[in-house]
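Researcher: Quick test of sequence recovery. Tokens follow.
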């Protein structure tokens, strides 16, 4: 009898403790997700407002041809904005960057967005389309017309999955007045009882917006049912094992994918693959971009899409990048130290630009290494919005101060547009495959790429075209004045040994002795955009 009591006790304690742990973890994830949701939304809105401000400051306010042109150009240069339009004081849309017939626009809700009182956020519907669209409307100074930007409401549908799994939390973005701006799915029936849900609510500091995330307690507990059943069975028979189980659990959590990544990091399972960057004027090798792969002990190779998002949201990306840089430095030093013109690019995440840690890491890893700081390129993607642009700029400047190059990656896909490139002050832009694919097919893309090349020239930035798959594209790129390219047409990302063989084959070292050495030296010994 006493034995049964003794055995029953751990089971109860176990359940109690398990519930508490699960709930704390879920609440933390939910809070984090709410912060990310608000940050993303804010950054989209502030970029959109910046575009409207910029147009207004150039005097764009009517439908005259020059103004319409400016609207069209701004739409092309800024991915999230679907359309820019001019709106009269009576609310009628006068004209839009899309041209043609204007469909009827019904305003479902309109609210003041910011304190200075000239920007409204509206939820509208166009014609008979069922979907909602977000309109950000900025009133002009003395003029009566307003400028407005339409953004697809999809961008405001929060993607809530802090742990890489399916979306289980419900997320809702509303205006302060309660109009729904975006949400994922619908809240289940049981919403009448608050206790059924864990929630996290956050109000934007800058705009009249709220984000509310809720997670049914039932779903949270369901994940742990297996554990609980296991616990019960074991307590029934083997008290000792229960005890061991309890001891192991706090640090175990083997099912937690973050822990799995941590282990893989320790085991050195994240390895660099290299994709060559080629000079399309001379045919020389310019360098390579490092693309990480997860090589499991059994030899399977896992692509970054499967683990980078989780590494980012968990913060492990800092450690992962550090490990990758160390490894690249060690593996390539022999071959690249004698080829200072060859540059190696690393992908950074938005998290890297939030503080100084990356500056310390880069300095520590490359300062006294055979691979020089001037051979390192850090690629900042345009896909992820940077939460703090001022800080990002400061970190970028500090990195450039060390002597490394900083590039904006995936240019054309993100939220940034031209203003982003200008603000961040980078040395290099990498034009996304999306544009490379449409060059020669779509005149607008040509115009955008021409603008980018011109801008790069003026700011002394290098341009690299990405995802180049055939020689026709190379011809187009040359005509546009682009010097460097990367893509399957040359080579896919490849493991270290193949890359080093390639370097030695296509970029043989000059024989000892003067003349050839000079001939083989790079033309671009690095006049940098930021050194001005
Ligand atoms: O080949 P590919 O599937 O390698 O890479 C897909 C994407 O994964 C790239 O566009 C890049 O944004 C991301 N990626 C690859 N390697 C890294 C890395 O080391 N760090 C980060 N942050 N992203 C990476
Ligand atoms: O970091 P970034 O998004 O630039 O990474 C480049 C991505 O594009 C990687 O996933 C890489 O494997 C992939 N890639 C590289 N060259 C080509 C190409 O020519 N075609 C296609 N479809 N993908 C490419
Ligand atoms: Mn990249």
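Model:
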């Amino acid at each position: 009898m006493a034995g049964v009591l003794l055995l029953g006790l751990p089971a109860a304690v176990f359940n109690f403790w398990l519930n508490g742990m699960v709930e704390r973890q879920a609440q933390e994830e939910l809070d984090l997700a709410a912060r990310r949701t608000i940050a993303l939304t804010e950054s989209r809105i502030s970029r959109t407002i910046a575009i409207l401000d910029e147009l207004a400051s150039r005097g764009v306010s009517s439908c005259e041809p020059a103004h319409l042109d400016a609207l069209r150009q701004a739409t092309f240069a800024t991915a999230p904005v679907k359309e820019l339009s001019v709106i009269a004081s009576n609310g009628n849309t006068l004209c839009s960057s899309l041209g043609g017939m204007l469909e009827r626009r019904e305003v479902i809700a309109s609210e003041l967005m910011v304190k200075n009182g000239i920007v409204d956020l509206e939820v509208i519907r166009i014609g008979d389309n069922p979907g909602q669209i977000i309109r950000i409307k900025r009133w002009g100074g003395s003029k009566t017309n307003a400028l407005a930007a339409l953004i697809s409401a999809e961008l405001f549908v929060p993607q809530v999955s802090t742990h890489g799994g399916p979306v289980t939390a419900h997320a809702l973005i509303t205006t302060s007045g309660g109009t729904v701006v975006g949400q994922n799915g619908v809240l289940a029936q049981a919403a009448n009882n608050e206790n059924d849900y864990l929630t996290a609510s956050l109000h934007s500091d800058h705009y009249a917006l709220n984000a509310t995330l809720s997670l049914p307690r039932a779903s949270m507990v369901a994940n742990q049912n297996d554990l609980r059943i296991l616990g019960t069975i074991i307590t029934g028979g083997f008290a000792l094992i229960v005890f061991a189980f309890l001891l192991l659990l706090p640090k175990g959590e083997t099912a937690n994918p973050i822990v799995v990544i941590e282990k893989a990091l320790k085991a050195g399972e994240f390895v660099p693959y290299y994709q060559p960057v080629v000079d399309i004027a001379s045919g020389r090798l310019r360098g390579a971009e490092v693309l990480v792969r997860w090589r499991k002990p059994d030899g399977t190779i896992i692509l970054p899409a499967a683990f980078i998002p989780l590494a980012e949201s968990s913060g492990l990306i800092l450690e992962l990048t550090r490990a990758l840089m160390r490894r690249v430095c060690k593996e390539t030093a022999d071959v690249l130290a004698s080829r200072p013109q060859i540059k190696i690019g690393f992908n950074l995440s938005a998290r890297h630009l939030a503080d100084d840690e990356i500056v310390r890491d880069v300095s520590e890893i490359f300062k006294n290494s055979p691979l020089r700081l001037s051979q390192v390129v850090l690629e900042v993607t345009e896909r992820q919005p940077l939460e703090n642009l001022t800080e990002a700029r400061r970190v970028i400047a500090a990195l450039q101060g060390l002597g490394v190059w900083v590039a904006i990656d995936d240019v054309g896909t993100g939220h940034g547009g031209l203003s982003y490139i200008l603000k961040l002050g980078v040395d290099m832009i990498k034009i996304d495959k999306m544009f490379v694919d449409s060059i020669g097919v779509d005149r607008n893309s040509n115009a955008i790429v021409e603008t980018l090349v011109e801008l790069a020239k003026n700011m002394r930035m290098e341009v690299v075209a990405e995802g180049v798959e055939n020689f026709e594209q190379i011809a187009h790129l040359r005509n546009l004045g682009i010097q460097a390219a990367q893509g399957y047409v040359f080579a896919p990302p490849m493991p270290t040994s193949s890359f080093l063989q390639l370097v030695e084959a296509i970029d043989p070292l000059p024989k000892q002795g003067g003349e050839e050495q000079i001939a083989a030296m790079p033309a671009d010994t690095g006049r940098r955009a930021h050194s001005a």
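Residues 1-7, 161-167, 230-254, 514-527 have pLDDT under 50 and may be disordered.
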